[in-house]
Amino acid sequence: MKKYQTMFLQRYSNMLMQWKQKQDITNDELYHFLHSIKGTASSIGLIKLTEIASELIEKISKDGQRIWNEEEWGNFIQPLALEFNDTTESSQLEEDIIEERPSQSKILIIDDDIELLNDVKDCLEENNYMVFIATTIDRGVQLFYDHHPDLVIIDYFIKGKSSLEFLSRIATLARSIFTPIIVISDEATTFIQKQVYDSGAHDFIQKPIDNTVFLSIINNRMKQQDWFKKRVMVDELTKTYNRASLYEIWSELNKTYQKTEIPFSFALMDLDHFKQVNDRHGHSVGDLVLTNFSKLILQEKRQKDYLVRYGGEEFLLILPKTKQSEAVGLVDGLLKKFMKLGHDTDEGQIKLSFTAGVAEVQKSIKSMEQLIVRSDLALYFGKQNGRHSVHGYTAEMQKSNEVIERDSLLRIAVVDDDRVIQRLLSDQLSKMSISNYQVEVKSFQDGETFLNSTWYKGTGKYIILLDGIMPKMDGLEVLSHLRKTENEKNMGIVMLTGRQKDKDIVKALELGADDYITKPFSLQQLQARIKRLVNRLF
Amino acid sequence: MARILVVDDEEVLRMLIMDTLEDEGHDVFEASDGKEALAILGNESFDLVILDNMMPGLTGIEVAQQMDEEWKKNHPILMLTAKTQQSDIDESKLAGIPYYMAKPFSPSQLALLVEDILDA
After folding, report:
1. ipTM
2. Which one-letter DSSP state was computed for residue A519?
3. What is the pLDDT of residues A21-42, one digit of tens each?
4. Which of B9, B19, B54, B108 should one mutate to test binding to chain A, selecting the residue with the greatest count of A CBs within 10 A?
């Protein structure tokens, strides 16, 4: 669809340019212009444009002889031109956000007031927040532990019970990872407010909520959160960058790469037999080894290189403006020096080594994760082949490691009894591209057939689109069965519901649906939802 | 697999239709207006012709009127039209067009209808 949309928008902006040059246009030209948009736009997913063109075309006669001057036609088609701009911008914007920003801020909302939930969710999503919703405290707690949101919004009353229970359950963890908590409430007695603040909430807001003010409060809290995170960008023990800073370094370097085409390289380094050091000499020696390692690398690396602590004993050296072959040489030099270094223990000095895998950025690499996967494959190769060595990535490593490939399979199921929807969705969704995933789509006629299949019991990640109303077994029933299966953690479930079925939505969310979308929806909308969900869950 | 001619002056829509039908395994040919369509139809044969009605120059109905009567007896034509008023449908029936689809449509709606037409 994207391809047609781009062509379509391009074509009409060219047309408008031509009109601008000749200034006057005939009634016939204007009529045909609107008629074409009306007939084409919604077929390629630009529904709004069809709507506007239909309204405008009603206002002019087909066979009129009128000549429109630039000001006249300009004013007349203004609503259309505005929508053109919005569409062009947002189609670019959406790509950017969804593809390039895996570190979008996450917000958890816990509320059983579906109208408010909807309203706040829309508003936040429009402002590029990733939103998790829960209608019960239990689900909220689960989402909190699973996804570590950057901010939590919770209603004071949920199902007639106060949410202080939730606050007490998560207050400690929330404090340790600096998660702000905002409580909203119908009532705002001094007693309630005091209770809320005492149990660790940061803000208290009385309903009805003004979205613009609410958004400002949230933005403020998020800024503070960012500030905290930046302050803890450095790993306390090793004084290297921590993982949180990785993405920023990546985007900066990637920007330069796109401009200059001079590649940079990632070297993933893993200390050999580190676990044995810990087991035998204790964690204090383990910590000492880590500090010795990072001290040495920080001292020996080039000024422009970045050292990031990637995992326990895994470090990532980022080498700007350095080809893979050159990086392998540099890291090999570091390895030789490290192997000579002695580490003090109770049983005298010990010497250690590390294994490293190196990969350089290339045109085909679209995300940081892809580059890390490559360096990881090279590292894995080294670990399999005698350790204490540095290897550059080669395409063969990819082939010999198909397990990783299979892991990134994204299976999408369309469970809907409507044949047209089934067809439409499977056609279009299978063409969808999601970074790091290979997409596979299958449709099912009804819930029973779906549940009886073994399809959802395999490996990989699943997105399941469930129609709410189906013969035999409805979507809600299928949903509750799915949430009881073992593979549950690998599934993102989206309910497709009719408009104004708030009760169904609440029920679906209670039963553990991850998202819902009301019919009729556009394919673009659905694709954006799926991408969001994949980013959010997996 | 069928040979299908798509006649539409709107390039983007024409491509969308062609890609959709090609994905279904058909052999698809294109014409960007009525005159071009008639020229192609004079030389080659198709199992189905998909005609947009409102085009500059000849309309889809005019194209159908000028098409070979014998051919029309044995082959279907599908008209794409924004008009769904009974008088327009009657007019197209008279011109020998048995099927029509209202614009805007979704690609899979079209694919399903084409399948049905070819099966009939």
Report:
1. 0.76
2. S
3. 778 899 988 988 888 888 888 8
4. B108
